[in-house]
């Protein structure tokens, strides 16, 4: 019909089609219930034709409902389809069950979840019609199930309709269904029981009646079943026929018991009412039928009993009083192995009875309840000696299977825990396991295997029970069995049992392990491991169990060692050799091909525990000598995609190289060492690791790990919010958890899910601020000129020591996270800082990167020593072991970069550290020829120093000297006179302020430069010996001709008098801002005071110890220490504290070189486009066949360094490409859409977490470039 067509229809057409469908459902007669007239045969033919038409209509109805449920059902309901279907159900012949089923299914579709249609169906008598069908003996299970389901729809959430069902003989219908014995449909029985439970709740007085009727049914069926069983025993020759008569009775008992169980579960008062009618005796009598009836019936009865007595001690006592214990214990006596479900049901009843007895303080009764089960366990041991187990007679089989069934029941009881296990332990009932193991060799193989299996399973996850059995010497029995096993299966069960004993992590587990060690279990396990290549019994499963058990045992020993427990005893030589042989065997095992991932993983962890145990050092050496290092490196390199396996191998490798006497670290590939570093840093101590696969304790995984830390960062003040947030977390938290960064702006959260991309962006942006010299934590170094070194005087910008501690700790944490996550920061650290972070000692050559002046000066002296010793000796005259390092380095850095340091503690960030509008940086300098005032000169000097223009600086300093001279002394004659006085002062050993021109410069001649607010003091040495000078003990500059006696007070007074005479000749103008006192005590005194403050001794009395040929190297060593270590020692200590919180010191020192550390943190700031392209994957097109990809790479290649870095940050969150780059995760370019004008309006988008770029199909290269520029300008990093 048209109802089934997909073409759009008008409302009128839909109504006509629905009306035709309803008419078809009504049939050809005057109504659905009208019967055709005629003779019997004709009537039957017409009825069959009518049923065929109706079934076709029902099929169309269901299809129409499935296509458009709401509209179709509403339309059909308005035309009376509900009433038609109910009439059809009433008139449906019982012989056409499929027809009835189709009508019920259609009714279910129509009435489901519609209050209006349900009421319509009720009014048409649907409940009466369905109950009538349910009560028919010939109704099929399918019709019963669907009928009950429709009734459930009808009475759901309606007490009124439930009452109608009850009044329409609903209870009898439900009982009839249960009596039918539909054992294959547990869902049907559950729904029937649910309906009965609802009726019982609505009519409490009826509840007793329903339970009584069910009990009567059960009792009646019990009698019939008992009679049938007796008949079977009498008619032994015709068992099949009798069994066929017994099966329906068993099925009826099963369904009635299922109904009882569903009805009574969790309802104590119903259960009590049922037990008051004698139901306990009936249930026990059903159990007493034992193996004469089907196991399904007994299992169902056991579960029904469990539902009745759970959490009801009084009823448990009733069951015990009717001798349930004896009936239940007899169930395990059988000549066949019982199903596991049967055993589980049996154990559950026993467990709840014992729990109830213990709750009623009837412990003795509980023991007597369990005693028959223990007797059955020893059935195999009670066989008369002459009979043995030679035959396969029924008695032998019964004894063997009784023991096996009872062992499994006992194990199930132990798994349920509770008081039942305690009673068994108190009565020493589990000692039967030790008795059976003692005679292990005298039993048949199948029984021996089952005993070993149950011993392991009974103690699995049961430390208390494991300790109880270990005290009975089971560990010694297992050690003996593992040595004497003759089959692979027996060895497998024995090693598995031993692993279950020693697997526990608590103190009880430690005690069990001690007993196992004393019993020689460790030696037995290592023996198995050592012979795995020659013994055919040692298969994969045996190795898995052996490695697991050994791992647990050595793990416990390593834990005792790590805790410095008084129980720890240093291993004997024999024990150490045993551990070493185990390590070699494990290496041999790992070298085998195709041993499987699980065994590989477990073997590695056993190796880790051995190298962390009592013989740690010897085991590590054994692994290294047995080529273990190369093996582990190979495992890491070949399994990079398997994170758990790689982490395990990396941790093992770290133990090897940390204990190794040979330095093989540098020979290991960097990617392997980085993986080792990450896993070692994130791993908890081995003895505290959780349990992993196949019974072996695990360590930790590398992926962010145990959880995540949510770090909320204010995007407007990244540094300040970061330092406040990071103070809340410890190093362990930062290492062992993933970081989830959430940017906020005020109270607004930025959208984005951090899967790594936001973290990279945060680290990049934070490092840009922290490592900006304007932040006052660092200053610039040299080679490259934008490298950074720790500021010798971070307090220069007003930062307190407390603030310094916070900021340097945060800086160290950022560096550590950069290494841990392999996220480069694009920050070049000077080599000396990298060495200090790794506990190294800087060398003289490292000075080149922090102070160009010092390095140039002393390098020339070193060269002079090699080329001209005499000149070298002359150059060293009057130099002492003093240095002016901090001020010089600060001046050198700040003069070059013209920075305005601002303390970050004052809430500064990049936007707030720029110079004020009135600063020289914001004023345009004049050319030297136009400078006429000190103000103009200051601006020019500022810009010259910022540009590092040395020639211009020299010209400006000459102008500065001229501007500072009074006008009255600017004539040449006066200048000549001043030069003569300076020369006289030099010859007489007097103190002078050297003219700038007399010291040719810091790069060419040794000079100490100190910046002061008023003037520059430059002390230097030129090539002429008579012009050389040194700093005397008072910090004043003396000529080289002065002797020791010239330092006397008389000579100093004479020098001072000469300088006073010199100063009187220089008549100062009124605009020089020098007071009368300053005139009487000229600038030399102020310079002397400053020099006293700035100079420091390199050793005690350093100002009195002159440098000579013999101690020059010593001086360079002390100078290097002073410049690179001592000056920044407090700051580096704070920095290392933060760094080592994330990357522990011993791990970083063992695995990285200073150069590698610097490269990891800096990365490739040039952003090599060729490298980027090599590690790029494409989706939707490549560079070879797609012009958009080609345009993209052309655009990237055309960018400058800074712009390329911005693109990289936008696409990946990195400011530079790391040392390992994209090798672990490739960059992906995916073309989206098709080439069109609409695509030109789309922006490119990226997922920084996955390095994934979605590139629209732009029509022109210009369009691509403009959209990329817009995207990078509008967003700081990709959307992840």
UniProtKB/TrEMBL annotation:
**Catalytic activities:** S-ubiquitinyl-[E2 ubiquitin-conjugating enzyme]-L-cysteine + [acceptor protein]-L-lysine = [E2 ubiquitin-conjugating enzyme]-L-cysteine + N(6)-ubiquitinyl-[acceptor protein]-L-lysine
Q: Name one Pfam family in it.
A: HECT
Q: Which GO terms describe its molecular function?
A: transferase activity
Kindly indicate whether the keyword Cytoplasm belongs to this entry.
no
Region annotated Disordered, chain positions: 25-44, 685-705, 903-929, 964-995, 1029-1052
Q: Where is the composition biased (Polar residues)?
A: 695-705
Query: What SMART domains does the annotation carry?
Result: HECTc (SM00119)
Broad class of enzyme this protein falls into? transferase
- Per UniProt, residues of the HECT domain are 730-1280
Q: In which pathway does it act?
A: Protein modification; protein ubiquitination
**Protein biosynthesis found in the keyword field:** no
Q: Where do Acidic residues bias regions lie?
A: 974-986
What is this protein identified as?
HECT-type E3 ubiquitin transferase
Q: Which organism is it from?
A: Durusdinium trenchii
Active site, renumbered: 1249
Q: What is its EC number?
A: 2.3.2.26
Q: Which UniProt keywords apply?
A: Transferase, Ubl conjugation pathway
Q: Where is the composition biased (Low complexity)?
A: 1038-1049
Q: Per its UniProt entry, which superkingdom is the organism in?
A: Eukaryota
């Amino acid at each position: 019909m048209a109802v089934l067509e997909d073409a759009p229809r008008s409302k009128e057409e839909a109504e006509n089609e629905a009306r035709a469908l309803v008419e078809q459902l009504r049939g050809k007669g005057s109504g659905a219930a009208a019967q055709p007239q005629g003779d019997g045969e004709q009537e039957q033919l017409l009825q069959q034709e009518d049923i065929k038409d109706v079934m076709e209509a029902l099929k169309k109805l269901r299809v129409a409902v499935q296509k458009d449920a709401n509209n179709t059902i509403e339309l059909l309901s308005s035309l009376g389809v509900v009433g038609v279907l109910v009439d059809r159900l009433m008139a449906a012949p019982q012989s056409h069950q499929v027809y009835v089923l189709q009508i019920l299914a259609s009714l279910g579709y129509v009435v489901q979840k519609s209050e209006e249609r349900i009421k319509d169906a009720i009014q048409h008598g649907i409940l009466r019609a369905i109950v009538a069908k349910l009560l028919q003996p010939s109704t099929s299970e399918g019709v019963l199930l669907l009928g009950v389901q429709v009734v459930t729809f009808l009475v759901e959430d309606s007490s009124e309709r439930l009452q109608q069902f009850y009044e329409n003989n609903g209870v009898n219908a439900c009982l009839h269904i249960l009596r039918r014995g539909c054992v294959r449909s547990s869902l049907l029985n559950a729904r029937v029981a649910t309906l009965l439970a609802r009726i019982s709740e609505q009519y409490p007085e009826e509840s007793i009646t329903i339970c009584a009727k069910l009990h009567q049914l059960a009792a009646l069926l019990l009698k019939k079943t008992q009679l049938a069983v007796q008949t079977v025993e009498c008619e032994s020759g015709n068992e099949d026929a009798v069994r066929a008569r017994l099966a329906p009775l068993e099925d009826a008992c099963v369904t009635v018991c299922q109904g009882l169980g569903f009805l009574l579960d969790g309802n104590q008062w119903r259960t009590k009412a049922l037990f008051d009618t004698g139901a306990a005796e009936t249930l026990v009598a059903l159990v007493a039928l034992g193996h004469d009836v089907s196991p399904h019936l007994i299992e169902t009865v056991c579960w029904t009993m469990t539902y009745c007595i759970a959490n009801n001690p009084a009823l448990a006592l009733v069951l015990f009083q009717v001798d349930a214990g004896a009936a239940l214990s007899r169930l395990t006596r059988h000549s066949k192995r019982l199903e596991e479900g049967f055993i589980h049901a049996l154990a559950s009843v026993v467990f709840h009875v014992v729990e109830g007895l213990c709750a009623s303080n009837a412990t003795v009764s509980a023991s007597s309840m369990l005693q028959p089960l223990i007797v059955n366990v020893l059935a195999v041991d009670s066989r008369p000696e002459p009979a043995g187990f030679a035959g396969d007679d029924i008695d032998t089989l019964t004894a063997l299977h009784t023991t096996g069934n009872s062992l499994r029941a006992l194990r199930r009881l132990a798994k349920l825990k509770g008081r039942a296990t305690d009673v068994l332990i108190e009565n020493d009932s589990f000692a039967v396991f030790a008795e059976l193991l003692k005679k292990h060799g005298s039993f048949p193989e199948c029984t021996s295997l089952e005993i070993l299996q149950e011993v392991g399973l009974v103690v699995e996850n049961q430390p208390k029970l494991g300790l109880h059995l270990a005290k009975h010497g089971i560990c010694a029995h297992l050690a003996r069995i593992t040595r004497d096993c003759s089959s692979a299966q027996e060895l497998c069960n024995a090693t598995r049992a031993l692993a279950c004993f020693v697997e526990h992590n608590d103190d009880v587990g430690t005690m069990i392990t001690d007993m196992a060690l004393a019993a020689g279990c460790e030696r037995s396990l290592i023996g198995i491991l050592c012979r795995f290549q020659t013994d055919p019994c040692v298969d994969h499963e045996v190795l898995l169990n052996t490695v697991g058990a050994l791992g647990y045992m050595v793990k416990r020993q390593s834990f005792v060692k790590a805790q410095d427990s008084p129980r720890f005893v240093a291993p004997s030589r024999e024990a150490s050799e045993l551990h070493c042989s185990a390590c070699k065997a494990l290496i041999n095992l790992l070298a085998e091909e195709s041993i499987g991932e699980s065994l590989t993983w477990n073997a590695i962890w056993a190796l880790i525990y051995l190298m962390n145990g009592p013989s740690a050092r010897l085991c590590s050496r054994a692994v290294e000598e047995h080529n273990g290092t190369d093996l582990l490196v190979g495992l890491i390199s070949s399994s990079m995609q398997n994170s758990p396996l790689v982490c395990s191998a990396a941790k093992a490798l770290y133990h090897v190289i940390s204990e190794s006497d040979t330095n093989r670290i540098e020979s290991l590939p960097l990617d392997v060492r980085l993986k080792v570093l990450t896993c070692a840093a994130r791993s908890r101590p081995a003895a505290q690791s959780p349990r992993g696969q196949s019974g072996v304790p695990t360590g930790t995984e590398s992926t962010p790990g145990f959880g995540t830390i949510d770090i909320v960062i204010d995007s407007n003040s990244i540094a300040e919010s970061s330092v406040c947030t990071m103070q809340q977390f410890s190093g362990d938290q930062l290492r062992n958890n993933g970081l989830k960064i959430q940017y906020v702006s005020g109270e607004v959260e930025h959208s984005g899910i951090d899967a790594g991309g936001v973290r990279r962006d945060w680290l990049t942006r934070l490092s840009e601020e922290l490592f900006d010299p304007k932040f006052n934590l660092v200053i610039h170094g040299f080679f490259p000129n934008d490298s950074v070194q720790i500021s010798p005087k971070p307090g220069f910008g007003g930062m307190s020591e407390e603030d310094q501690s916070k900021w340097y700790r945060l800086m160290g944490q950022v560096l550590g996270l950069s290494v841990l996550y392999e996220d480069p920061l694009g920050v070049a650290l000077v080599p000396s800082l990298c060495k200090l972070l790794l506990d190294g000692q800087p060398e003289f050559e490292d000075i080149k990167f922090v102070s160009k002046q010092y390095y140039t000066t002393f390098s020339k002296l070193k060269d002079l020593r090699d080329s001209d010793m005499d000149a070298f000796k002359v150059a060293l005259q009057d130099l002492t072991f003093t240095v002016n390092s901090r001020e010089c380095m600060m001046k050198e850095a700040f003069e070059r970069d013209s920075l305005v340091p601002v303390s970050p503690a004052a809430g500064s960030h990049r936007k707030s550290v720029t110079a004020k509008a009135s600063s020289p940086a914001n004023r345009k300098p004049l050319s030297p020829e136009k400078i006429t005032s000190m103000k103009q000169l200051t601006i020019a000097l500022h810009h010259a120093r910022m540009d590092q223009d040395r020639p211009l600086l020299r010209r400006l300093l000459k102008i500065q000297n001229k501007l500072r001279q009074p006008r009255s002394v600017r004539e040449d004659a006066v200048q000549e006179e001043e030069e003569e006085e300076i020369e006289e002062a030099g010859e007489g050993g007097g103190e002078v302020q050297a003219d700038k021109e007399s010291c040719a410069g810091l790069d060419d001649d040794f000079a100490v430069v100190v910046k002061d607010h008023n003037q520059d003091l430059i002390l230097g040495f030129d090539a002429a010996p008579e012009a050389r000078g040194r700093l005397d003990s008072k910090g004043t500059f003396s000529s080289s001709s002065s002797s020791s006696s010239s330092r006397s007070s008389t000579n100093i007074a004479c020098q001072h008098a000469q300088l006073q005479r010199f100063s009187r000749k220089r008549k100062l103008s009124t605009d020089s801002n020098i007071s009368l006192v300053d005139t009487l005590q000229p600038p030399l005194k102020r310079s002397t005071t400053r020099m006293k403050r700035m100079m420091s001794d390199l050793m005690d009395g350093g100002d009195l110890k002159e440098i000579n040929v013999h101690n020059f190297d010593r001086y360079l060593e002390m100078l290097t220490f002073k410049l690179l270590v001592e000056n920044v020692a407090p700051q580096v200590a704070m920095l290392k504290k933060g760094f080592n919180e994330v990357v522990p010191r011993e791990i970083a020192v063992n695995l990285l070189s200073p150069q590698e550390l610097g490269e990891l943190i800096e990365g490739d700031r040039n952003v090599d486009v060729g490298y980027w392209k090599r590690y790029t994957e494409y989706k939707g097109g490549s560079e070879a066949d797609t012009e958009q990809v080609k345009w993209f790479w052309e655009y990237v290649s055309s960018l400058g360094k800074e712009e390329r870095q911005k693109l990289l940050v936008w696409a990946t969150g990195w400011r530079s490409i790391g040392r390992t780059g994209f090798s672990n995760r490739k960059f992906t370019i995916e073309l989206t859409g098709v080439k069109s004008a609409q695509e030109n309006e789309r922006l490119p988008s990226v997922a920084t977490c996955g390095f994934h770029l979605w590139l629209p199909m732009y029509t022109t290269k210009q369009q691509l470039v403009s959209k990329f520029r817009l995207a990078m300008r509008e967003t700081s990093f990709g959307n992840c």
